[in-house]
Request: fold
Amino acid sequence: MEPTTITLHSDYNLGAVDPRVFGGFMEHLGRCIYEGLFDPGKEGTDEDGFCVKPVEALKRLKMTAMRYPGGNFVSGYHWMDGVGPRDKRPTRRDMAWQSIETNHFGTDEYIALCRKMDWTPMITVNLGTGPPEEARNWVEYCNCPTGTAYADMRKLNGSKDPYDVALWCLGNEMDGPWQIGHVPADQYAIRAQQAAKMMQDTDQKIELVVCGSSNISIPTYMDWDRKVLEYLGDLSDYISLHRYVGNRDEDTPDFLAITNSIDQQIEDTAAVCRFVQAKRRSKKPVYLCFDEWNVWYREGGSGEGKFAPHLLEEVYNLEDALVVAGFLNSFIRHADVLKIANIAQIVNVIAPILTRGKDVLIQSIFYPLEMYARRREGLSLQPVISGPSYEGKTNGEVTVIDASAILNEDALNVFATNRSVNEHSELTIILSDRPISKLVDGDLLTGSSPKAANSYEQPNVVKSVPISGVTIEEGKALVTLPPMSVAAITFGL
Ligand code: AHR
Reply:
């Protein structure tokens, strides 16, 4: 293959990469919470009932904003069911996933887990079956000083001090007919505005995420976003985007070219935000919150009235890991508009880790998340990539190498994916205004085939290793990337 050059310049930066782009999402769905994160009294849990090995594995991902409790689940969820003495909490049939919900995990357990993990709480309110005032009361429960009913309830449940939850999402995928309580955009906008106003009147420091389009194929794509943004006006701080992708046609090159479509989705949404801001003559920009994203196309199902059923337990392979790296590259390349992103989800349900009893399996997609999280601080540089390209059947033309870069003072972090299924790539990295002086460290993820995957029997088939084959010559870095690989490299300047 012809070589590729990535050219960067310190001045061509889009500003700081928001750490909240490396967030996660945990929903009352399948075995994400129960069995995955919280199983009081079971072997392998700590004194608070949290599952020790999954928690330890997740710490390696240094996740930031952690969205909870749904997802589709939240549109039928009443938060008061999940607070107070556990033995008094009602068991309910969850309408989104047809499972049994004991409510043994609720707001207080979630906050305790966020504190243990150093996660930023991010709560989604129920705008499906929940009245706007219920959302407002949840803000009081979480954020207000004691002295009024819901804040006093928090104190009674063990926490005098407010939880200070700064990020609140106004419902989930309300544009989708599958959503409990789905309504057309103009009706959602009214509900969301009412909730937003009361929530902000309760705590002016909170930031709000309005529901944008839940996928790119929905007929109301972008029209929904425009209507909602116009109605909510300056009450919106962020608008949500969701995206799940898959290799349904067994076409690996096209699957890996999905980055074009992710870039476009981000740019479409940013354009609508800018259009509405201009139309309203507002000084306040609305930023993007990609609060559900991942590869998901194999596993689905219904909970069939069971507690903690096996649902959406995708087994991930090498090509999926490359696509996850593609999402991250796209997020970094749009650091000026994209401020929050949450991989969906974190344990068992379309997740980087699976659990069986007290054991944990690290999946292929765990590694790019870990490799990027270690190097996420700094300014996003705009990469100019010159090299061979190919035409994806549905996703269009892409360079064989996908890349992003972050400048952190005297360190340059470069992320590069070789999308070729069978050829090595020789890569030259140039920071035009400063010489690269040394390799600090680097991780490489690759495998024997696009479908290579880890299993409990063979857990190390797809695993990152320290990179080799990097040299520095005359201030430039030369890297050899194997086929189907992701590299995350830190250089000293
Ligand atoms: O993450 C799984 C589901 O995907 C979420 O519940 C929903 O918001 C989306 O459709």
